[in-house]
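Researcher: Please predict.
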Amino acid sequence: MKIVLPALLSFLVCRVRAQAGVPPTTLHHRSYFYVGGQYVTQGNSTIMEGAMYVERLAPERVTQPFPLLILHGLAMTGTNFLNTPDGRQGWGDFFLSKGYEIYLIDQPVRARSPFQAGIDGPQSTFTTFSVESLFTATERFKLWPQATLHTQWPGNGSMGDPVFDAFYASTVPSLVSQEETSVKMKNAGPALLDKIGPVILMVHSQAGFLGWVLGDSRPDLVKSIVALEPSGPPFVNVILPPVGPARPFGLTEIPITYDPPVSSPEDLKREVVDIGNSSLFTCFQQAAPARKLINLVNIPTLVVTSETGFHAVYDSCTVNYLQQAGIGVEHIKLEDVGLHGNGHMMFMEKNSIEIAGLVEQWIAKTNTK
């Protein structure tokens, strides 16, 4: 019987990894590149600013029609989706195993996308209190009603626990200004899409508004959007500081294309809407007649919300705003499909692969051509 060399190599790699206690992975190729940088004068010479790091992972055999482009959230990097802090299979490997080519980025001015002193704005860092109270041990801090239901983080979620320490070590400084973040992504993101072609765009948390910016910039190159607890709700920050006015263009910090056109935030008249849980914040929608997000209306969109994360308070408001603006949105609340106890970092939690399977089913049925 003839043994095919790649299959033998894959078997040996998997065996060595198993003996070392490393979870199985899909045989793949890895490379990286940068997009979006521009030269600026500094002193008597020049430097490059705004360049965005992109990591490409491709399974040995790509079987899916479109790659998956993943944008991480605040204080995070593309490593969020490689494996979990306790060493289990990550979403990156899961989607590789399904035949998807994957692109992971570090947002501009973040981690491997270099910060340039004197050019880029100030940065901030998540404290251990922020991570524990918002992500990993919300059941102890009880900052919103659903927080007490959190059970899926792999560990006790507190400083000193090995899983927490591994996760916290991966957090990095982020730009304070979300407007600056948006502008830099609008410069680098379309360049990436032009380079790699049509994609399925997956965004998490703070990257939510960046997803709408990219979809608006290149609607022909974004086949669908998967928004994992995307930034919101419209026009305000709640729970996650700084609480107060935010996203003056509804769901974004910078203008995107409305029909009729919007020349300034004042053009977007708003009204209060009751979508439940409204005692915790004021939920806004557009005053009638609502303008349409004309470049996003043909992009199928999925919003996924955990049972216990702070987005459980207000993601329905974000979904309502998208629907009112003409976007076809499917909203999956994990508790409604039998997945309980998850928080904001659902793709790292104990049942993360079950959630990945749910997302992949939606992608597969939505992106057939």
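Model: The mean pLDDT is 93.
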